[in-house]
Amino acid sequence: MIRFTENASLLPYNTFGLKAQAALLVEYDHEDDLPHIFQDPRVKGKPFLHVGQGSNLLFTADYPGVILHGNIKGIKFQGTTDDEQMVEIGAGETWDSICDWAAIRGFMGIENLSGIPGEVGAAAVQNIGAYGAEFKDVCVAVAVYDVVQNKHFIIGVEECRYGYRTSIFKDPEFKSRFIVTSVLLRLRTKGLFNIEYGNIKAALLERGYSLQQKDQHTSRRKPAPVTRPITLTAMRETILAIRSAKLPDPAVYGNAGSFFKNPVVRILKYRALSSQYPNMPCYQVLNAKGEADPEWVKIPAGWLIEHSGCTSRRVGDAAVYPKQCLVLVNMGKAKAEEVVQLSRIIVETVKDRFDVQLEPEVNFI
After folding, report:
1. 133 - beta bridge partners?
2. 119 a catalytic residue
3. Which residues partner with 327 through β-bridges?
4. What single-letter DSSP state applies at residue 14?
5. Which residue among the candidates 165, 188, 236, 313 is catalytic per the annotation?
6. What digits encode the pLDDT tens for the residues 120-170?
7. Domain boundary residue among 70, 95, 116?
8. Which residue range is the domain that position 10 belongs to?
9. N or C: which end of the chain has fewer CB within 10 A?
10. Is 258 an active-site residue?
11. What is the DSSP code (8-state) at residue 180?
12. Cβ(154)–Cβ(189) under 8 Å?
């Protein structure tokens, strides 16, 4: 079913809670609706933007064209081996509900991505990541509708050009051409959990879990007795607890999660900075083979913002969130221009202090 709404409010489609309207909103339920939508005279030839839940968008004004939102649901098993499960998931499914679904059924690989807001289609576009995991790590292929050629086809993960918070779907040449309709993921049924990133180990210990892991699916030996071995559900609950402790609920304070990307700098640049700031942390940058890049590292944007003195910055009702300075929040009645101004102040302040350029992770529309 296809639904057309003129002068539609975009409040349901942006988690910042900013008021904006679309000249036309088109909602659909099936991938086969897309050819009909783009042949409709109300849509044909008009500028358009496809959105999910808007957890990575900042509408700076009303949108004069067509906003599209898909509600393609469904989970299909597409193949099983002794240690893997292939799953096709509709682009309109909520990402965290898929993380929950996988954890309940014992499918590993996306538990560290629990709690990330948005839909599955947006996860494929953004290459979402958290706590040492990224969407590309489990992606096999992405199904898309090509607006230009008016056909559906499959793009393999290598062709998706996944990088840090980017993909082919964000390329100017393709972002108004390809619409994600489903994704094919490879989830594991065996293996160890990724507990090396950030404060995951500390959080697990605090919750009473042992850090000694054993792939109990592959070992026939009786595991050593532990009080509480790490389980898939325990990992998901721990990740959710870490996130909720520092990230605001959009229903309380409108926000788009992490507003800035962690800047990637040459290791020589980092060494020069760390000689001035010995406590400055960094993370490895992985190349296409999953190996540490010897020339580049990532510096946490939150650390740069905090140590440039921006933790209490505020412009109107747009403010830096006190518990996590990487997040900008709507304190109630923020205007888009206030959020934009605040973000520019932070970028300029960090640049002046560290000579490092921050880039927004949020898309300005």
Report:
1. 130
2. no
3. 258
4. -
5. 165
6. 999 999 999 999 899 999 999 999 999 999 999 999 999 999 988 889 999
7. 70
8. 2-70
9. N
10. yes
11. E
12. no
